[in-house]
Amino acid sequence: MNGLVLGGTYALLGIGLTLIFGLMNLVNFAHGEFYTLGAYVTFAAAALGGAHFFLAVAAALVVGAAAGALFERVLLAPLRDESIDTTMLVMIGLWIALQNAELLGWGGVAQSIPHPFPTAPIVLGPVSIAPLRVFVVLTALALIGLSWLLIQKTRLGTAMRATFQDRETAALMGVRIGRIHTATFAFGSALAAAAGALLGSTFIVNPSMGDLASLKAFSVVILGGLGNLAGATLGGVILGIAEELGAGYVSSGYRDAAGFVIIILVLLLRPSGLLARSERIG
Amino acid sequence: MRVLAAALGALALLTLPWWLANPYHQHVVIMAGIFTILALSLNLLLGYTGQLSLGHAGFFGIGAYTSALLALRGGWPFWLALPGAALTAGLAGYGIGRLALKVRGAYFVLVTISFAGVISLISINWMDLTNGPLGLPGVPAPELPWLSFRTKRAYYYIVLAAAALAYLVCHRVVHSRLGRAFLALRENEPLAESVGIDPTRTLVAAAVISAALAGVAGSLYAHYTRFVSPEVFLFIYTVTMVIMVVAGGKGTLSGPVVGAVLFTALPEALREAMAWQWQMLAYGVLLILLVFFLPRGIVPTVAAWRR
Amino acid sequence: MATLSIEDLAVGFGGVAALAGVSFEVRPGTITSLIGPNGAGKTTAFNAITGYLRPRRGRVAWDGAALTGLRPCDIARRGIVRTFQKTSVFPALSVRDNVMIGLHVRGHASVLAILGGRRAVREEEARLAAEAESVMTFVGLAHRRAEPASALPYGEQRLVELAVALAAQPRLLLLDEPGAGMTGAERERLIELIRRLRAGGLTVLLVEHDMRLVMGISDTVIVLNHGRVIAEGPPAAIQAHPDVIRAYLGTAARA
């Protein structure tokens, strides 16, 4: 069951990144930092601001989206025609800057987010689970569902899919590529922030939590195939469950290697990911 | 005129321990030398073949650990441990090079990061081999029967020689048909293939040479600090290397040298004034600014001004 | 002298058959042109012959040996060099460096020899530099040798492409729309160069839309439509061929 908690949030991270990476051809090293940002916003709102927990989580989403839109406009839009190496370097810079800004702002001490759920676990047959975790899973599922709806059913989603498949034609058909980029980055960052809010509440919040989150997000994206929403969802769940199951067998030090190993293995054996449909040319 | 400047520069380098007597400054120079080798090696991949390898700390670390282990466990003298480190790192480079065949661009970056990550985790967890987080202390300094290189002054000359050698190797490669093949792959791979350039062999060659040089730097580092721990795999080292190459000027030979000297001296100079996090924050911002305002790096920009 | 023979070559993307079973021969020492309306499969044929695309079916043989399944760089080493439809140079490098890269297979310095700085390497470099000069002079770009390829006007960039391809010392040269975008004078130059190449023993296969160029220099013309060969023969016969005229009806041939 804990695997689902992890899996759901990994899926959120993965969906956000697969959209950004896939649609914008951007290696978003700063993805984990939006995750951290979400956690800290929730912390700030709930612990310091005294806001209700649910409001704090919602705030994380909003701030994530806003920050994403801001950084995209300022840093990425001017570089849109540059090569992937250039944008990669910018994202690395953003990653380092954000993380250290957070270190300076909040200090290195871990924080925990107060929440209104009772700590006594709910017992359902053989499974006992804390109510907070139920909330996390449900929220994650809700957000995943919302993402699906957005991509499949709305005009924005259609425009995003069109841009992903064939940018030039989409532009010719009147899609405002710039706006789509901003929207995609904002959306992906919002999801990352939500994941941060959820996992940050379950565990703890510290400035370097984003690094592992980034790694796992990339593993999920590669596992599921670039730009593939279903793949990212599935990949996230698989990674989450695999980590939980593996915790019993493998020493915790090597647990984090799972993400790295997945990346290497998948790229070696099945570069287009588990569920990839589209043909790779060249 | 240029010959005169070069001669003066060489003289200054050869006599450095005398006019720069402060041991702390000498330490900075030695570190700059080691990082010069690292930056030059990364430049072969980043600047010339156009492959962004973010796992270079992995080759550096492999070199450091190999050298340390050969010396500590195997009793090898430094003069053999260093080539051993270069060979091992080169082998790792071979593996990465073959991997690069299958994936390019962003995926290659992710694979290199993962490679460094896995190696890092192994070094932390495989206690029997690497002593884990405790590290390997007591790595012996280089020795000849009549001379020990324990002092900074003596070690400086080893690093100087190694850096000069690394520069020479890079110079030879870059001005050869192999170096042209690197550039061809970077500029237009399908066109390169159409005239018979084999991307496999070329990228593997680049990776092996690059990794071996990084391994040399690792070995030099291990026998200088005389202590090796998993910290050598910290991503910050890779990022520093990348900044050195990008700021100095990727795709040039003197760019990485300039970048290495600058970004070894600068943090040391600022160490008094700022906490480590402020420095990192500055690095992050600097990287962004570089991309926007100085995309080609210092050396090419200066060269363009002078024209 | 070697012949290029294509047997029943078929290439498909998804459900579309870009080439539906094409067979023809390119005889040594001749200039053969491949023409046809847009989408007929001409560049696809080039890509399949030179290893950039894997065919679904069929065989490509050169000098008796099969080429199908080989990588582009291996095919190039056997003496078959192609140019690309979209201008393809090494943009940031000088014209001279572009041509030096073309000379890659003409050099043999090993990695170890390069690292060791052996004299043989230096001598080879000097020889290659001289070769580069003569190739640049042949196409008429020697005065541009130091300029970055991307800075050259379009027509000259196409000459750089040609120079790079020639530097690789091909026995069979595949030119993909070499005259596209050129001025009349440049095209005349090009025709002259191709004629001189044939006189030197080079076999040329070219794709072109400019009918004047095609009919002016070709020994054989092969016409593709919808992925099939619909006619083959000397220019005069092709110009009068009813199927060819029908295929082009509605398509204005650039004269």
Condensed summary:
The complex is a heterotrimer of chains A (282), B (307) and C (255). Helix content of chain A is 74%, strand content 2%.
Structure description:
The complex is a heterotrimer of chains A (282), B (307) and C (255). With 282 residues, chain A is mainly α. Chain A has one domain. Chain A has helices at residues 2-24, 31-48, 53-76, 84-106, 131-153, 155-165, 167-172, 177-202, 209-224, 229-249, 252-255, 257-269; strands at residues 122-124, 127-129. Chain A has a two-stranded antiparallel ribbon. With 307 residues, chain B is an all-alpha fold. Chain B has one domain (20-234). In chain B, a hairpin with a 2-residue loop joins strand 2 and strand 3 (147-148). The model of chain B has no long low-confidence stretch (mean pLDDT 88). Chain C starts with a strand and ends in a 7-residue tail after the last helix. The relative contact order of chain C is 0.18. In chain C, the strands form 2 sheets. A 6-stranded mixed β-sheet of chain C has the order 6-7-8-3-9-10, with helices on both faces. In chain C, strands 2-1-4-5 form a 4-stranded antiparallel β-sheet, with helices on one face. Chain C is α/β, with parallel strands linked by helices and 255 residues long. Chains A and B meet through helix 4, helix 9 and helix 12 of A and helix 6, helix 12 and helix 14 of B.
